[in-house]
């Protein structure tokens, strides 16, 4: 079977994989290739490049000088799809949510009779539509719903996210495929350390893009401020700024916790689990979250987690017993942190339990094998 994965901004060659979507596409492509599929990642950039990944899949980058958020696909990409992807033997995974290029790619594939799977990477939760609703709702009815409606299937990171699709009137088949782990990023167990049970302060960390609304960072700051009278907390927010760092800085100052909050630039030279392991508790209080790749990396680092109950990884955190899943509210985050503080003596055992669970359940080859069987049924 030929499997193509389209992600407009996937790095053509030599560049680091930045962002959860690119990392997820790479992981799934690697797993599909390991299961014997012929895999090609399609992307667009300033120039034409063909590369072979060490993970066993091809990367084809097509020149497109149009703005990033454009409906215009690269002309060479259109020709490639028409010549290389055959309806009876090929399926294409269209990655992206509320992105004009994803819609344009879906329309092209449909015109060529090639089945495609829409992969939004985030759930269509109500909270997604609350921000910029005057733009998102028109786009939904004009473009996004059509992309999803005409897909052979919609791939979600958590089976619960199918409920969001049904609520919006979509009855398209759903494929569940969680994110997996990069074996190269797994720290050896001998390198893991924990601070003494009486050590202070309690070191919290968020690792990811500084998107205050999506990731619930404004809620996290408010919860920390309310806990300061009873707990000695330090919070580190590390990742690329999506324009919200000044706002978060002002919020920390207004809440009188600026001395307890540190902002750090992203560090792409060190594995994420290594960065997370320097802290006690990983926090992901997102208002909506497809899965939570950084949370999975925190499990590999054997850290305790506090995640939003809507995140795809929430049920796994509960099952593994490595942390708490809480409502994405100030009260929910506050209660969760207070509970974890009281369980400090259990942190090491909780963290190791989460690490064992992640290593056993989130191998890309196994995840891709299940997905590949579903793709084969779509072609049949």
Topology:
Blueprint: E1 2-6, H1 20-34, E2 38-45, E3 49-52, E4 58-63, H2 75-84, E5 90-95, H3 100-112, E6 116-119, H4 126-130, H5 133-149, E7 153-156, H6 162-167, E8 174-176, E9 202-207, H7 212-215, H8 217-227, E10 233-238, H9 245-254, E11 261-264, H10 272-276, E12 281-284, H11 293-300, E13 304-308, H12 314-320, E14 323-326, H13 330-342, H14 347-361, H15 364-379
Parallel strand pairs: 1-2, 1-5, 2-4, 5-6, 6-7, 7-8, 9-10, 9-12, 10-11, 12-13, 13-14
Antiparallel strand pairs: 3-4
Q: What report would you give on this structure?
A:
With 380 residues, the protein is an alpha/beta fold. Helices cover 41% and strands 18% of the residues. It has helices spanning 20-34, 75-84, 100-112, 126-130, 133-149, 162-167, 212-215, 217-227, 245-254, 272-276, 293-300, 314-320, 330-342, 347-361, 364-379, and strands spanning 2-6, 38-45, 49-52, 58-63, 90-95, 116-119, 153-156, 174-176, 202-207, 233-238, 261-264, 281-284, 304-308, 323-326. It has an eight-stranded mixed β-sheet, with helices on both faces. It has a six-stranded parallel β-sheet with strand order 11-10-9-12-13-14, sandwiched between helices. Helix 1 packs across helix 15. The N and C termini lie close together (11 Å). The model has no long low-confidence stretch (mean pLDDT 93).
